[in-house]
Amino acid sequence: MLEDRIEQDTRRFGAGRGDTAAAQKARVLVVDDDPGLLRLMELRLDAAGYRVTAVDSGERALAQLAVSRPQVVVTDLQMGGIDGMALFEAIRAENPALPVIMLTAHGTIPDAVAAVKGGVFGYLAKPFDAKALLDEIARALRTTAVPAGAGRDDRAWRAEIITRNSVMEDILAKARLVAGGDASILIEGESGTGKELLARAVHAASTRADRPFIAINCGAIPEALLESELFGHVKGAFTGAVRDNRGLFLAADGGTLFLDEIGDMPAALQVKLLRVLQEKQLRPVGGQENVPVDVRVISATHRDLEAELAAGNFREDLYYRLKVVALRLPSLAERREDIALLASHFLNELVGRYKKTVTGLAPEAVELLVTASWPGNVRQLYNVVEQSVALATTALIPASLVEQAIRREATEIAPFEQARRKFERDYLAQLLKITDGNVTHASRMAKRNRTEFYKLLQRHQLDPRLFKPQRA
């Protein structure tokens, strides 16, 4: 019987308990169209402390991957329908960091060797014993583990990020994988998606976790002050510089500097930032000597930086220096399965602050939240839940209160940067309408030269040809 064989393997190999702590937390997806072998592997891995999901086809494996992400995939090479290689290619397209172990019959070993050369983590030739399988899984897990010295348990580093969305889990897996190094990371995504939260999580998972994490919004500080804020200044460097200022780079020395809205950084400062990243030293404003600095830079933007490159608004060399690793956060509308989870988390956090006896949201209120459009993403959801808690007079927050809060959020004053972008776009569109798409006339009316005016049009993706009169 299968159970007897498991008991024998457990006594013989100690159930692979050499990596017990990792095993008890690791999720393994096993794929094989042989029901007996599939059940045997499931029992063996379960006895070793792994959290196992077993499916009998590549199609079901892809469906399972859409629900939750394992840390290792073990799959048969030869299966009907989607075979092991097709499954691996699909996994690699979505999550190249997820290790895949291939199981192969003796006659297909050459195919398995070729698969390893193509990126498969490893292979086991059938028949294999329990220890070989457990050793290979343990080896795969070591390649994705948080580096030694990070000083954080398996999930503490990401405790503030609430999700059960598979795309978010992929992003977190990649973030954890790169956290141990010093590669620069560019986090992209709409406003309110949690870019700074992800940056803090990367810092918490890194070997720099005990050093400072410093954040600055590059679009919120005037250009004249931003250089001094970043790189510091010496006393007397300019009017008002009554004392030395170390700057944020040196304040973050040994730790992480988060440059939010990097797409708004002025061109002159882009040059200086590139030099600091290349040379790992800086010169304060008014200073005479360079100062060494050791900082990991994580940057973020809601802008399309490739469009900014094409428009000449962002330096190409700086772009590639910042984007060694890119992580793109989905909008809240793309992770609707997280909305109720996030709302519950926010509610539990806010009832204490407001000293309310609220116990939850009415089912109709939850339905409203899940189906709303959320242009402001997670930040907007938090504001809606906060307004609802603040105004609640019953234990369950009713749908009417949530609906009122959503409407109020939609009509509130937009953030400065968002309002400025909307004004620029509307202003430029109005000029093009007045001049029938004549850029020369429009730029004169705006008192801007044609080159600068074209850059503004490109930034807002406005095509002058669309404003020319239509011929009959």
Give an overview in words.
The protein has four domains: 143 residues, 3-Layer(aba) Sandwich (Rossmann fold); 167 residues, Rossmann fold, CATH 3.40.50; 80 residues, Helicase, Ruva Protein, domain 3, CATH 1.10.8.60; 52 residues. The protein has a five-stranded parallel β-sheet with strand order 2-1-3-4-5, sandwiched between helices. The chain is of the alpha/beta class and 472 residues long. Helix content is 48%, strand content 12%.
Radius of gyration: 27 Å
- Content of β-strand: 5-15%
Distance between the first and last residues' Cα: 83 Å
From the helix content, strand content and strand pairing, which structural class follows?
alpha/beta
Question: Within the CATH hierarchy, at the fold level, what is the topology of the largest domain?
Answer: Rossmann fold
On the 0-100 scale, what is the average pLDDT? Answer: 84
Q: CATH H level of the largest domain: which superfamily?
A: P-loop containing nucleotide triphosphate hydrolases
Specify the CATH class of the largest domain. Alpha Beta
User: What profile does the largest beta sheet have?
Assistant: 5 strands, parallel
The CATH architecture of the largest domain comes to 3-Layer(aba) Sandwich
